Amino acid sequence: MRGARGDMLASLRRTIGHLESGMDGVVRVPLGHAGADALLQGGLVRAALHEVFAAGGRHGAAATGFAAGLAYRLAGGRPLVWVRQDFAERECGALWPGGIGELGLDPRLMVTVRAPDAAAALRAAADALACDALGAVVLDVWGEVRALDPVASRRLTLAARASGVGCIVLRTAAMPAASTAETRWLVRAARSPSGLETWGVPRCEAALVRNRHGETGRWIMEWRCDDSLFRDGAAHSRRVAAAPADRPVAAPAVGAGRRAG
Questions:
Q1: pLDDT tens digit string along 107-135?
Q2: Distance CA 168, CA 85 (A)
Q3: What are phi and psi of 30, to 5 degrees?
Q4: Residue 221, domain CATH
Q5: Pseudo-torsion of CA 123, 157, 203, 174, nearest 10°?
Q6: Based on the structure, what is the number of domains in the chain?
Q7: What span, in angstroms and rounded, lies between the C-alpha atoms of 204 and 5?
Q8: What's the whole-model pTM score?
Q9: 3-class SS letters over 128-195
Q10: How many CB atoms lie within 10 A of CB 52?
């Protein structure tokens, strides 16, 4: 049994090495965020596996929104399949079409698949990745999933490369482990600046902690619902008082703000 498993791993490594040798012709999808796109050499690789981790269970909504943004950017107007483990829905709540629409995304292009456990979700995601009519597949699982081991990760990578369909693996209440992911993101909710008269746009702190072809980085990223892309959330165009000329500038007071996912 060990020999058969070793042969399978060796075969998968050879296949991935062959695929990676032709990385010059890959299609990259820009996120819209200048800093992230620069480190990604133009954007996310479409036919690849990307991981999004929530920085703790309470940041699950922010990570879900971020993963939705990545998936819709990768999909490019084609249908999106979101495979979700039942336990993830019980812990984080159901995906609401109205909320998807408020993000500026078209819920009619999203097919949701509910799986009884992580193993069934993994099988469903692999089957969906084989359909080249799709734009992206999201695998949404909760906790430390034993079925999502390096072998399963390689299978998802191979399926994405073969079909040209982007794959996002969304992990909540889990720690990063060895995988074949092209990128890995650690996401937490970001505090909106105080003093705004409106709710503003969804905001998160996104750390690119794995980038197979470049450096890593961390940004406050905003999702622009009208344009369906990410932008830098560090600066806001609003009036500020002029600096006093006769005394030192006081440190800005930190006001209460909401966490936008």
A1: 999 999 999 999 999 999 999 999 999 99
A2: 14
A3: -65, 145
A4: 3.40.50.300
A5: 60
A6: 1
A7: 40
A8: 0.80
A9: HHCCCCCCEEEEEEECCCCCCCHHHHHHHHHHHHHHCCEEEEEEECCCCCCCCCCEEEEEEEEECCCC
A10: 27
What SS3 state is found at 18?
Answer: helix
- Record the tokens describing residue 260, joined without a space: 């936008």
Closest CA to 166 of 132, 213, 115: 132
Could you give the percent of the chain with pLDDT greater than 70? 77
Residue 101 lies in a domain: yes
The answer to whether residues 172 and 51 touch, using CB atoms and an 8 Å cutoff, is: no
> Which positions ≥6 away from 125 have C-beta within 8 Å?
81, 83, 137, 138, 139, 156, 167
Please list the residues that pair with 205 across neighbouring strands. 188, 220
Q: Would you say residue 16 lies in a domain?
A: no
- Helix axis angle, 2-20 relative to 150-163, nearest 10°? 40
Phi, psi of 35 (to 5 degrees): -65, -45
Beta bridge partners of 140: 84, 170
Domain that holds residue 123: 46-234
- Residue 252 and residue 240 in contact, taking contact as beta carbons nearer than 8 Å: no
% of the chain exceeding 90 in pLDDT = 67
Q: Residue 56: which region, alpha, beta or left (left: phi > 0; alpha: psi -120 to 50)? A: left
- Is residue 109 in a domain? yes
162 domain residue, yes or no: yes
